């Protein structure tokens, strides 16, 4: 079923919620499409995208990265998650900054991203993020038949159709997000 799995052993995620972060498990339980996702256990030392793809034989172009961005205007800080293919980069200082109505936008500090998401750094995923965060998706992500993304922990990956990500709370498909 998963053509991008390489040497991974994907399992129905709802059967293995122990392999994902607590906020991810809670979101998956509440999702109508939770049964369309799979999870695969990996070596946490190989969680970073390039090492993961090289080791497990999953195509880089089928991996999506989720980055947490902090946009500031005065004393107000707004957070957003940006999900783009691993072969691209999010336009944080242009598209994302304008979407957040911020004077300055940058990657959120690691401690903030981890504490606010309840997920491990290097495993942050758009599934299970705080409800008030926009989840900005590049059109390529939303249209992908299958993707590998983080699971909220470094010891596993989620396999998910892009259209499921487009249905997440706060999800927006944003033209020009990825460069």
From TrEMBL:
It comes from the Bacteria. It holds the Pfam family tRNA_edit. One of its GO terms (molecular function) is aminoacyl-tRNA deacylase activity. InterPro entries: YbaK/aa-tRNA-synt-asso_dom_sf (IPR036754), YbaK/aa-tRNA-synth-assoc-dom (IPR007214). Residues 44-167 form the YbaK/aminoacyl-tRNA synthetase-associated domain. CDD domains: PA2301 (cd04939). This is Prolyl-tRNA editing enzyme YbaK/EbsC (Cys-tRNA(Pro) deacylase). The lineage of its organism: Bacteria, Bacillati, Actinomycetota, Actinomycetes, Pseudonocardiales.
């Amino acid at each position: 079923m998963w053509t991008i799995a390489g040497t991974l052993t994907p399992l129905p995620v709802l059967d293995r919620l122990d392999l994902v972060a607590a906020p991810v498990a809670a979101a998956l339980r509440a999702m109508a499409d939770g049964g369309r996702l799979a999870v695969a256990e990996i070596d946490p030392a190989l969680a970073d995208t390039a090492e993961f793809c090289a080791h497990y034989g999953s195509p880089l172009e089928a991996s999506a990265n989720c980055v947490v961005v902090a946009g500031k205007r005065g004393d107000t800080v707004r957070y957003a998650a940006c999900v783009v293919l691993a072969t691209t980069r999010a336009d944080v200082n242009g598209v994302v900054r304008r979407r957040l109505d911020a004077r300055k936008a940058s990657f959120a500090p690691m401690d903030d991203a981890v504490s606010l998401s309840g997920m491990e750094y290097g495993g942050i995923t758009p599934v299970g993020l705080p409800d008030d965060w926009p989840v900005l998706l590049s059109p390529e992500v939303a249209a992908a038949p299958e993707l590998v993304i983080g699971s909220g922990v470094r010891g596993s990956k989620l396999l998910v159709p892009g259209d499921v990500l487009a249905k997440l709370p706060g999800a927006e498909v944003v033209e020009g997000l990825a460069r």
